[in-house]
C-alpha cells in the first residue's frame, strides 16, 4: 500500500510534469494564457509537495532528510520556492520555461529512488546536525537549480527573440521576454541566495556533524570532496563577479557548470560509497 506522503509526491510529480509540458508549448504558441496556466500548475504542484514533506515528517518522527529521495524532494521544493520569489520580484513567469524542466528532473530523480521511511536511523544520523546540515545544503542546491535554468535561458535568448520576430505580441506583459540584464541579475541573485545556505549547511554544519559522528572534521569522503569542489566553484563564480566583473555569457556558463557538478555529486553518492552511502 502506498503511503500518504508518497501519494502526495505523485500528485506533485504529475502537476510538475504538466507545468513543464505547458511551459514548453508556450515557446511555440506565445500566448499569455498559456504561461499563466503553466505557472498555475507549478504553484498547485507546490501544495502536495509541501504536504508530502510534512506528512513524511510526521510519519518518520523527524525531518525527512535521511536519504537521497528526501534530499531530492527538498531540492525540488526549494527550486519552486525560489522561482516563486523571482516571479513576484521580476514579474517574468516565462522564466519558468527553463526552470520547470529542472524541477521535473529533480522529481524524476526522486521517483527512481527508494521511498521507504527509515524508522531506525544509523547512529551517525541521530543528531540535530542532520537537520541543519542536510536541509541547508538541499535548499542551497535548489537555488542553484533555478540559477542554472535562468542561465540556460540567457544563453539561448537570441534564438528565442529571433524565433518570435514579427509574431510577438506588443500588448503581452505576462509572457514578455526579460532582458539579458534581468536574466543575468536573476541568476546572480539565485546563486547569492544558495551560496550562504550551501556554505553553512554542506561545509560548516557538515564538518561539525562529522566530528560528532566520526571524531574528525574531515575524512576525504567522496561526498565531502564533492561538496568542497562545488563550494570552491561557486566561490570562484562570486569572485569573478565581484573582482573580474564577469557577467553575461561567462557567468551563465559557470552557473550551468556549477549545477552539473551538483547533479554529479548527488548521483555519485550512489556509486562512490563512503560514509554518505547510506543516503
Q: How is the topology of this model organized?
A:
Layout lengths: L3 H26 L2 H29 L7 H23 L5 H16 L16 H37 L15 H35 L7 H22 L4 H25 L7
Helix pairs in contact: 1-2, 1-4, 2-3, 3-4, 3-5, 4-5, 5-6, 5-8, 6-7, 6-8, 7-8
Q: Domains counted in the coordinates: how many?
A: 1
Helix-strand topology string: HHHHHHHH
Multimeric status of the protein: single chain
**Contiguous helical run count:** 8
Unreliably modeled segments: 166-172
Strand content: under 5%
Query: How many strands, which pairing sense, and closed or not: the largest β-sheet?
Result: none
Q: Summed up, what is this model?
A:
The protein is mainly alpha-helical and 279 residues long. 76% of the residues lie in helices and 0% in strands. It is flat and about 55 Å long.
How would you characterize the overall build of this protein?
This protein is mostly helical and 279 residues long. It has one domain. 76% of the residues lie in helices and 0% in strands. It is built from 8 helices and no strands.
